[in-house]
Amino acid sequence: MSHRIHNFCAGPAVLPEAVLRQAQTDILDLEGTGIGVLEHSHRGKAFARVRDDAEAACRSLANIPDDYDVLFLQGGASHQFAMIPLNLLPDGATADFVVTGTWAKKAMKEAASIGAVHVAATGEDDSFHRLPDPESLRWSAGPAYAHVTTNNTIVGTEWAALPPTPEGVPLVADMSSDIFSRPLDISQFGLIYAGAQKNLGPSGIALIIIRKDLVERGRDTLPAILQYRTHAKANSLFNTPPTFGVYVMGKVFRWIEAEGGLKGMAERNGAKAQLLYDFLDASSFFRGTADPASRSLMNVCFRAPTESLEAEFIAEAARQGLDGLKGHRSVGGMRASIYNACSLESVQALVSALEAFETTHRGALAG
Question: What is d(CA 40, CA 26) in angstroms, rounded to the nearest whole number?
């Protein structure tokens, strides 16, 4: 009998238990083939069914229009930091960035090594704890694309509604940490990319949803493996793909469908986040760090009165079976990552632990 604890890790992160249990079976024997999913050829019929079902489930879940390609690529989101400008930023053009945290900065730095970049807005002066006012955004003249990071895992901020971008300019969105956590209008985007290891599956694979006209923008002189057209024409099978990652993502898509789809995920995630934020807002001991208007439903960042108390709480929580609560090394504090697969029961257990710790330590702190 396995022993599952409450997993609040930021990524690789918690996966649906039903998916993990199905994977246990399919690792040994996929669909009665006598060969496990890890062993099947990526060119064989068994894996073709896996890949095709993963794409079909993805398209159905997000109502992805026919003029978009769905790609499963290696390298995670960080590989896309380079691949996007290589394909979408021609010589002499500019890519615009809304800089809301570490990952947006990394994406912009990579693009700057390939072409010109422009900062439309940044929250760095406020340590990224507040998202820029959409009215403060200043776009360049005719950018090749506009880049937004929809959720910022390190500081716990998230765009509840996307900022307006220039008409006719493709919106490129890094949705690694809130992909499929709520309903999406795919037609708003030119390209969506997401590392799988937070809301979709294991690490090392990324989901790319890209409008077909953008697929063809990349220069023919790029190495074939760096061209989106290469992977679109080959159904993500130009080279050996991360087959297990594709398999798990397909199962996660089907799990989301069974849980009420993206609308169901939004309701589930809203309830979890509200429970935790309500506690933090009422507490005189713990405090949330993100501006209330910018708060993430995926990553809740918070502090205790002192760093030593934070370390003590993290250790006590671990003893109670609540793992992954240490904040990112660049900002410290604590962080609860409550992605799609994190249950309400896990958040309830966390709130109970916080309440008990506050009750025990409030008096000692005052003394």
Answer: 11
From 159, 174, 255, 272, active-site residue = 174
Active site residue 255: no
pTM higher than 0.85? yes
Q: How confident is the model at residue 364 (pLDDT cuts 50, 70, 90)?
A: low
| Strand 6-7 versus strand 94-99 pairing type | unpaired
- Tokens 């002189």 locate to 221
Query: Which pair of tokens denotes residue 122?
Result: 């940044």
Q: For all residues of the chain together, what is the average pLDDT?
A: 96
Select which of 26, 69, 103, 251 is catalytic: 103
Q: Using DSSP, state whether 286 is helix, strand or coil.
A: coil
All structural domains of the chain with their residue ranges: 17-258, 262-366
Kindly name the residue from 198, 251, 272, 326 that is annotated as catalytic: 198
> Distance between CA atoms of 340 and 260, rounded to whole angstroms?
12
The answer to whether 139 is a known catalytic residue is no
Q: What are the pLDDT digits (tens) for 132-144?
A: 999 999 999 999 9
The amino acid that residue 5 corresponds to is: I
Any catalytic annotation for residue 126?
A: no
Going by pLDDT thresholds of 50, 70 and 90, the confidence category of residue 331 is very high
CATH 3.90.1150.10, applies to 262-366: yes
| Cα–Cα distance, 297 to 2 (Å, whole number) | 29
Instruction: State the fold for domain 17-258.
Output: Aspartate Aminotransferase; domain 2 (3.40.640)
